[in-house]
Amino acid sequence: MDNVERQDHEDQAVSQVVDRLAEKFPDRPRSLIEDVVTEERHLLDGKPIRDYVPVLIEHGAKARLRQSAAGANH
């Protein structure tokens, strides 16, 4: 897989992460979820192994969305 194909694959996987998180957090605006996912993705910029990036992004974004939900309930 060349770099362009790898980037396309990662972009599609990240888009699916946004979709899953939008379903999991229906009370959050999609734009917020997209922003959180983008921030999490940028935290992984420059990392040489990209295979697990979507999983790591989803994990980090989910934790942040849960944390902000818990803060909003207090």
Describe the overall structure:
By secondary structure, the chain is mostly helical. The chain has one domain. The protein has 3 helices and no strands. It has helices at residues 3-24, 30-43, 53-72. Helix 1 (3-24) packs parallel to helix 3 (53-72). The longest helix has 22 residues, at 3-24. The chain is elongated. The protein starts with a helix and ends with a helix. The model has no long low-confidence stretch (mean pLDDT 90). This is DUF3562 domain-containing protein.
SSE topology:
Elements: H1 3-24, H2 30-43, H3 53-72
Helix pairs in contact: 1-2, 1-3, 2-3
Salient structural properties:
74 residues, mainly alpha, 3 helices
Percent range for helical residues? over 70%
Instruction: Write down the overall geometry.
Output: elongated
Separate helix tally: 3
Number of domains: 1
**H and E order:** HHH
> What is the typical, i.e. mean, pLDDT?
90
Strand content: under 5%
Q: Characterize the largest beta sheet: strand count, sense, and whether it forms a barrel.
A: none
Radius of gyration over all CA atoms, rounded: 13 Å
Question: What structural class is derived from the secondary structure elements?
Answer: mainly alpha
Question: Could you tell me the number of beta strands?
Answer: 0
Distance between the termini: 48 Å
- pLDDT < 50 runs, ≥5 residues: none
Organism: Cryobacterium lactosi
Protein name: DUF3562 domain-containing protein
